[in-house]
Amino acid sequence: MDAPTEQPHAAVRARSPSRDSLLIRRTMAEVTPVAEQVTSYFYAMLFVRRPDLRSLFPAAMDMQRDRLFRALLRAAEHIDDTEALLAHLQSLGRGHRKYGTRAEDYPTVGECLIGALNRYASRSWNAETEEAWVRAYTKISQIMIDAAAADELCAPAWWCAEIVAHDRRTSDVAVITVRPDRPYPFLAGQYTSLETPWWPRIWRHYSFASTPRSDGLLTFHVKAVPAGWVSTALVHRARLGDTIRLGPPAGSMTVDHTTDCGLLCLGGGTGIAPIEALIEDVAEHGERRPVEVFYGARTDHDLYDIDTLLRLQQSHAWLSVRAVVDQQARLRLPDVIREHGPWNGFDAYLSGPPGMIRSGVDALKNIGTPSERIRHDSVEGPAVARG
Ligand SMILES: NC(=O)C1=CN([C@@H]2O[C@H](COP(=O)(O)OP(=O)(O)OC[C@H]3O[C@@H](n4cnc5c(N)ncnc54)[C@H](O)[C@@H]3O)[C@@H](O)[C@H]2O)C=CC1
């Protein structure tokens, strides 16, 4: 994602913001309209001060130059939400190991961040604001540094993986299976970051389409999207035997096995991949909790994995699968959940395009689903930006 664009899993608590948080928000309000310039200035400063850091970023910086910067700003905005921030930043810190980031790089990044904000938020900037940003950045960077150091003791910074199956399902969707060079631990519902040999240092996120398997293989669903360099290479260029790199697993859209409540799953397009992993997870735990899947696609032809889902439905009485095809349906995917249900006693899992997640969350909230029962990974940024 890419990782720098992950966002705090936002269960925003109703609490009055701290003074630091208010000052940070004031800066953000001033820099948001000139975000492009602030970002360019930040990276220019960073690479002038530390030219050696340039090699950690992709050759074409326009593709993701603002990801690190945006991630830092977003984390600062959530500075009061310690619980959400902690999990998010730990994941970010672990994910940064694959870029080659070291603890000693963080102070320079912080100086450039504050330098850029100081310059572009000049109307509201003062000594108190600077202190608030220094405190926020110190907290953010320390969590990331600590998480990276702890991870170093037990996991590699990245895994190499060989493509062992490449199944073109439609003109733009491929189901790709890889064999990692070392065991790769993860949970059903999580995703990873992936780098191809053709676009070095450009990482994109893909969800695991199954539970961990005894043969250690990992499967991803990839759709080539316009201007999506990584996805297009994976669908149209990758061949058996090619080697990709994987970052660590991330994401919190996992099944809570301490309850037996039902699962309402919405999978849009290739967003169906982690939903399939969740179904397998429930099956492997021998649970007989209801799992209701709505699989949305634009056309019949885009339901590229409906056969897998129907096979799973045949073998599990607790599983129900419904396809919702835009061209045929009166309603779009998120709207159909209002027509079915009620969904009391169900946890909701959403995976698909950002717009689908947003309207799905709205639809669920409108029918009274509490937000702590709605799970999805971030709507903006890498979790769903899979170019
Ligand atoms: N490949 C993977 O592992 C994963 C991919 N994703 C994300 O899923 C998306 C899949 O893209 P496509 O296959 O092109 O899906 P798509 O754009 O063809 O849409 C799939 C379904 O979502 C619905 N939808 C789309 N936009 C909507 C909106 N604004 N409001 C309500 N419903 C909407 C459509 O009606 C359709 O039923 C991408 O954004 C990808 O990043 C998410 C999780 C995992």
Describe this structure in words.
By secondary structure, the chain is α/β, with parallel strands linked by helices. It has 3 domains: 3-152, Globin-like (Orthogonal Bundle), CATH 1.10.490; 159-246, Elongation Factor Tu (Ef-tu), domain 3 (Beta Barrel); 262-375, Rossmann fold (3-Layer(aba) Sandwich), CATH 3.40.50.80. Helices cover 38% and strands 17% of the residues. The strands form 2 sheets. The chain has a 6-stranded antiparallel sheet. α2 (35-49) crosses α3, α5 (106-120) runs antiparallel to α6 and α10 (333-339) packs parallel to α11. The protein is globular. The protein starts with 18 loop residues before the first helix and ends in a 12-residue tail after the last strand. Mean pLDDT is 90; it is low at 1-13 and 380-387. Residues 206-207, 220-221, 223, 268-271, 273-274, 296-298, 302, 324, 326, 332-334, 351-353, 355-356, 359, 384, 386 line the site of 1,4-dihydronicotinamide adenine dinucleotide. 1,4-dihydronicotinamide adenine dinucleotide binds at residues 206-207, 220-221, 223, 268-271, 273-274, 296-298, 302, 324, 326, 332-334, 351-353, 355-356, 359, 384, 386.
Short description:
By secondary structure, the chain is α/β, with parallel strands linked by helices.
Write the layout of secondary structure elements.
Blueprint: H1 19-31, H2 35-49, H3 65-77, H4 82-95, H5 106-120, H6 127-152, E1 159-168, E2 173-180, E3 191-195, E4 203-207, E5 218-223, H7 229-236, E6 243-246, E7 262-268, H8 272-284, E8 291-297, H9 306-315, E9 319-325, H10 333-339, E10 346-351, H11 354-366, E11 374-375
Parallel strand pairs: 7-8, 7-10, 8-9, 10-11
Antiparallel strand pairs: 1-2, 1-6, 2-5, 3-4, 3-6
Helix pairs in contact: 1-6, 2-3, 2-5, 4-6, 5-6, 10-11
Bound molecules: 1,4-dihydronicotinamide adenine dinucleotide.
